[in-house]
Amino acid sequence: MLCPRECGVDRTKTQGYCGADEMPRVAVCMLHHWEEPYLSGTNGSGAVFFSGCNLGCIYCQNHTIRNGGVGEIMSAEALKDAYLALQDQGAHNINLVTAAPYVPEIAKSIQIARKSGLSIPIVYNTSGYERVETLKLLDGLVDIYLPDWKYVSPALSERFSNAPDYGKVAADAIAEMYRQVGNLVINDQNLAVRGLAIRHLVLPGCIDDSRRIMDQIVTRFPVSTYISLMCQYTPQEHVTEFPLNRRVTAREYERLISYALSIGLYNILIQQKDSAQSIFTPHFTDRI
């Protein structure tokens, strides 16, 4: 019952929609240099990629781990050791990627890691498809929330991610994240230390819905909210459905940037078009 699907399965016996095991399964731990600059810095973000996901995005760049079963099962104690190892390697933060299916163990791992000397920020990197009640388990433990806000349209979210309720769920979840940590705070080393930053992956042919997301942000949050507008969408070989079988055009991307600025948003991070390459997608195997 941790996620909005509330599938109710007993994971000691089987898996639910997300494909997650009873205990956290980690696909890879790595220094990730391709996150937002205020997360990656010079040394990299300490990314922990969890296996399994409660969305069904047909264009997922991490599709090899989306359905679970990839990587190593790790206890809260083992996760603590992984966080500390990344800190020792110079990571600027611990970046928990798609951790929603494992929140109770994640919360426990953060608590014991802090007691064991973890001093860098915890980033909760999420699709935005989260239950508010579950997020409350992380209150006081997560320093930085990094949610996607993918859609407003139920038609698009059902068609592309098998989640017609995504728009409302994400809006409420991100509001809870903001309640916990406030707006993003960046220190004099240009690194994020606390707060909320919203990501939006621009999809080809879906700019009208992207504008509606910008409207929602202005309505629900300060205009100083940090937004990462990503043009890195890269068509996957298995995705042939129009319009997802092409990249975002420069005109589409520029129109969205102009619109966001026109409604008062100004803390906007933009990407170069050459970021739409598969080389920026982490490689996952069956070992960490």
Note down, in words, how this protein is organized.
This protein has 288 residues and is of the alpha/beta class. The protein has a domain at 25-197: Alpha-Beta Barrel (TIM Barrel), CATH 3.20.20.70. It contains nine helices and ten strands. Strands 1, 2, 3, 4, 5, 6, 7, 8, 9 and 10 form a ten-stranded mixed beta sheet that branches. Helix 3 packs across helix 4 (103-115) and helix 8 packs parallel to helix 9.
Q: Sheet bearing the most strands, described? A: 10 strands, mixed
Distinct helical segment count: 9
What structural category characterises the helix and strand content? Answer: alpha/beta
Our measurement of the CA-to-CA distance between the termini, rounded to an integer number of angstroms, reads 28 Å
- Highest-level CATH class of the domain at 25-197: Alpha Beta
CATH architecture of the domain at 25-197: Alpha-Beta Barrel
Helix content: 25-40%
CATH superfamily of the domain at 25-197: Aldolase class I
CATH topology of the domain at 25-197: TIM Barrel
Integer average pLDDT: 92
Shape: globular
Q: What's the Cα radius of gyration?
A: 18 Å
Structural features:
single chain, 288 residues, alpha/beta, TIM Barrel, 9 helices, 31% helix, disordered C terminus
Task: Please write out the topology.
Blueprint: E1 25-32, H1 37-40, E2 45-50, H2 63-66, E3 72-73, H3 76-88, E4 94-97, H4 103-115, E5 122-126, H5 132-135, E6 144-147, H6 154-161, H7 166-181, E7 185-186, E8 192-201, H8 207-220, E9 226-230, H9 250-262, E10 268-269
Parallel strand pairs: 2-4, 4-5, 5-6, 6-8, 8-9, 9-10
Antiparallel strand pairs: 1-2, 1-3, 7-8
Helix pairs in contact: 3-4, 8-9
